[in-house]
Records
---
Amino acid sequence: MARFVCKKCNYRFESYAKNVKKECPYCGEQEIKRELSAQELLELE
């Protein structure tokens, strides 16, 4: 499951699809980004 966040309203939601429709279900803006998992954050260091 992937987690997403809207850059405009900061709404967070989860989706089973990695390629979720790039539109916020709360405000309708098209500024969605996927949040990194804990493992992905650790691998950045």
Note: The CA atoms of residues 23 and 30 lie 4 Å apart.
---
Amino acid sequence: MSVAAERRLGMIADLVIEHATLVTVAGGTGPLRGARQADLGVVPDGAVAVADGRIAAVGPRAAVLRALSGVPAAVFDAGGRVVLPGFVDAHTHPVWAGSRAEELEQRIAGATYVEIMAGGGGIGSTVRATRAASETRLLADLLGRLDRLLAFGVTTVEAKTGYGLSTEEELRHLALLAEADRRHPVRIVPTFLGAHAVPDGFRGRPDAYVDLVVDEMLPAVATAWPGVFCDVFCDDGAFTLAQAERILRRAAALGLGLKAHADEFANLGCTALAAGLGATSVDHLVATTAEDVAVLAARGSVAVLLPGTTFGLGSTRFAPARAMVASGVPVALGTDLNPGTCPSESMPLMLALATRYLRLSTAEAIVAATRNAAYASGRGEMAGRLEPGFAADVIVIDGDDYRDLAYRFGGNPVVRVMVGGRWVAGDGVPNAERRAS
């Protein structure tokens, strides 16, 4: 029998991680909700066997080693440290040029997000800088952000466009994401966000810009990148409920997945709209009502919460995560990496914020940053769990207690990162191994 055939039987491993405190987040189907939001599946003195880039076996060390029919090519001794699935960042905006550091000073002086946008700053400022940047510059910056996400344990990332706001630019940014996905170990899930803001050329004519999104951008995106997600920002200073509905219905008709930025600043009704249309996730949800929470629970959309954004804005108003968990809404986390409100690639920091301000337990926050975030990103059947058949995307934490992920903050507890069965970041991993040529 060939080695390939033996591997299909799951009996030969390329690598075994042993003596680990495993957090598997495994078992069953779908995102975890309600009381199960805290189901970590902890295995003391566990092991993970990897073959052909996937998890072949996981469980108590003795049982995994007994299941192997030969000596693995490599063994990594975790020394009792926590080993868990790679983080899935369920909401990022990683393609941009320029800086908006001056906006922090404006917010410190009392300016609001909407006021900064109205004055020509905010998203519009980044759009101008990004349009002017070369592909070489944008790609280099994008790869650098992916390097930092990877170092913090992110192995899959949902990545939005939204700083192009023209058909040509939005397609250019989707192409840059595809090129980054080819070059970089981090797995990229692209999302089209042409409806991020009304660009300068359409000031005072938002409906005309929505016409462009619906009649030109969406068909072009669906042709070039079939099946990608489509997102829309429905809020004060962005798009109205009626405009968001036009965009989401057109995207659905073209076969695109649906997402929505909703209730970040004001409740315009987009949460119920998006969930009712079958959105995979609805994100932000700071101003979400009890009625909206009930709709999310009934429809099954994942709530992607972004505490780093609230922190970045200097606000004290956070999404009602405890009400969501109590109502059976599956909760996920993302960094909302972007140049204006959350210029951070640190998922461990998001867990620290989620426990303190969203009042999630550490176990609930870990599920939100792994399994549930994978479902929010359309990757729930391959990422976010340590389970046979899933991608061997694994991180090792400096500590033997999973609660350290939220207890500690300000540093990086991730000491090693594996993607597809290959160590790609962390202690003892050369930089040359981290990115494909």
Note: Residues 3-86+384-433 form a domain with the Urease, subunit C; domain 1 fold (CATH 2.30.40.10).
---
Amino acid sequence: MALDPLKIRIDFPILDQMIYKRSLVYFDNAATTQKPRQVINAIDKYYLLQNSNIHRGVHYLSQMATQAYEDARVHIQHFINARLSQEIIYTRGTTESINLVASSFGKKFISKGDTILVSNLEHHSNIVPWQFVCEEKGAVLKVIPINDEGEILLDAYTEMLDEKVKIVAVTHVSNALGTIVPVKEMIRLAHLKNIPVLIDGAQSVAHFQVDVQDLDADFFCFSGHKMYGPMGIGVLYGKEHWLEDLPPYQGGGEMIKDVTFEKTTYNDLPFKFEAGTPNVCDALGLDAALTYMQNLGLSEIYGYEEELLHFATARLLEIEGLKIIGTSPQKAGVISFLPDGIHPYDLGTILDKLGFALRTGNHCAQPLMHRLGIQGTLRASFAFYNTKEEINRLAEGIITAKRMFD
């Protein structure tokens, strides 16, 4: 069934707002998605009826909250087709998931002179944690190059996979350009050399089906708030043998089995990596978001957003002097663009007054902007509640703004 965005929008009351006396057009979905009533209701239900600390209480509320929290973990397992529920680690988001792997993997497996590979497409969150490891261990961070269209150069990547490389960390979808990276092939090539691969899936799981077993990813990270769930909750998937081998990231609370002043024994997976009081409420909110997406249909979401992307690309290219940055034929619902003769921030400010929520700047991808020879872009990123009418409004808004600078 084709999605009906007008029916879907009923579930998102925030979209009914007027901004500067104009109806809101929300095109900043790559930064964070809006939340449907079903997610908000799940959060309300927890605090109204279920609020309790989990795993430690024998009373009814604790047992009920614990069951809901662990049921959500199983739901996440099935959503990304992990082999085991204990391969699902709750975190605060993609950034913490990457930091967890970088810290724990670095402690045990990275030594002086080793190499860590990232790509030129990465968000800062998949660069800086690895720089920490390199500085601490005396390792080297190397960058997989891209072409001018924003695509990974696979031949160059293959040549970089030598015996010094200990891990590859690469995005699944570029947050700045929308490029869909051929991660399955990159993982296959790395595994030929027994090199593990971490995938930053923050921008992929909201747009199309992810199967971590099919990808054969060693680690996969994503955030709830970029897939219609709440902020403050995220997921690290890791293959069981890697999670067993890695030392804990933080100490205290749930991650211990036995503690004496002489020695601590760590808990079993997944609790080994979940120190402290868990974010139960937002885990249940994420659970509700996954259900919402599945009810719409992940293939239907991808098909509709791809239709929006193609429509928006054609519509914006009709505007004289406007250039789209990132032209890979394999893209998710993101368009970065630059208007001739207008600073992106100035255009973004004008569009804001016309009711548009877009992102301006380097999109936490400064090295990518340097590679492309620009300071930043305007970015429109789409979700299943957006419409072609909104895209037409955006095109008209850009044309109106350009006239102001003529």
Note: The mean pLDDT is 95.
